[in-house]
């Protein structure tokens, strides 16, 4: 399941790993999209969930039962870090999601002033998460930077 605040780049992520297609013009997701894609010998089934406030109560439902939660953050939009942290920890506190591995993506690192992985760990308090495996990468859907290691990480969560 791919979750995170609106305009962080969740749908861009799914588009880029599905087709390699990058676009500046992505329509905000309403509710969710389901995508199934084959990467090498792994099939990924992805819930791309909407990030606008009215949809956030749905996140838990889509994260329930998945092999991994991908939490996408706009690494440039520092004003939203507090809100991103709050929503993340609120989600992880759901008893149904205990132990589900978490991958945090600090997206848009093609832009100046993006937060580093170290910054994101601090701002999002990732070091306080102790009940599951947690990884954090800096990446860009636009330049496709680090998407290879992100896909490797996801493939490693499959069973
Ligand atoms: N510069 C840059 N822009 C990006 C990147 N990833 C996404 N964007 C832009 O950010 C905007 C929002 O992207 P979306 O993929 O629609 O974001 P979302 O998280 O799916 O948003 P919701 O569906 O509303 O929750 C779009 O204009 C994208 O082109 C990136 O890596 N770099
Ligand atoms: Mg979207």
Automatic annotation (TrEMBL):
<comment type="similarity">
    <text>Belongs to the small GTPase superfamily. Arf family.</text>
</comment>
<dbReference type="InterPro" id="IPR005225">
    <property type="entry name" value="Small_GTP-bd"/>
</dbReference>
<feature type="binding site">
    <location>
        <begin position="107"/>
        <end position="110"/>
    </location>
    <ligand>
        <name>GTP</name>
    </ligand>
</feature>
<keyword id="KW-0342">GTP-binding</keyword>
<keyword id="KW-0479">Metal-binding</keyword>
<dbReference type="InterPro" id="IPR044154">
    <property type="entry name" value="Arl8a/8b"/>
</dbReference>
<dbReference type="GO" id="GO:0003924">
    <property type="term" value="F:GTPase activity"/>
</dbReference>
<dbReference type="GO" id="GO:0005525">
    <property type="term" value="F:GTP binding"/>
</dbReference>
<keyword id="KW-0732">Signal</keyword>
<feature type="binding site">
    <location>
        <position position="51"/>
    </location>
    <ligand>
        <name>GTP</name>
    </ligand>
</feature>
<dbReference type="Pfam" id="PF00025">
    <property type="entry name" value="Arf"/>
</dbReference>
<dbReference type="InterPro" id="IPR006689">
    <property type="entry name" value="Small_GTPase_ARF/SAR"/>
</dbReference>
<dbReference type="GO" id="GO:0098852">
    <property type="term" value="C:lytic vacuole membrane"/>
</dbReference>
<feature type="binding site">
    <location>
        <begin position="4"/>
        <end position="11"/>
    </location>
    <ligand>
        <name>GTP</name>
    </ligand>
</feature>
<keyword id="KW-0547">Nucleotide-binding</keyword>
<feature type="binding site">
    <location>
        <position position="11"/>
    </location>
    <ligand>
        <name>Mg(2+)</name>
    </ligand>
</feature>
<dbReference type="GO" id="GO:0046872">
    <property type="term" value="F:metal ion binding"/>
</dbReference>
<keyword id="KW-0460">Magnesium</keyword>
<dbReference type="InterPro" id="IPR027417">
    <property type="entry name" value="P-loop_NTPase"/>
</dbReference>
<protein>
    <recommendedName>
        <fullName>Arl8a protein</fullName>
    </recommendedName>
</protein>
<feature type="binding site">
    <location>
        <position position="29"/>
    </location>
    <ligand>
        <name>Mg(2+)</name>
    </ligand>
</feature>
<dbReference type="GO" id="GO:0015031">
    <property type="term" value="P:protein transport"/>
</dbReference>
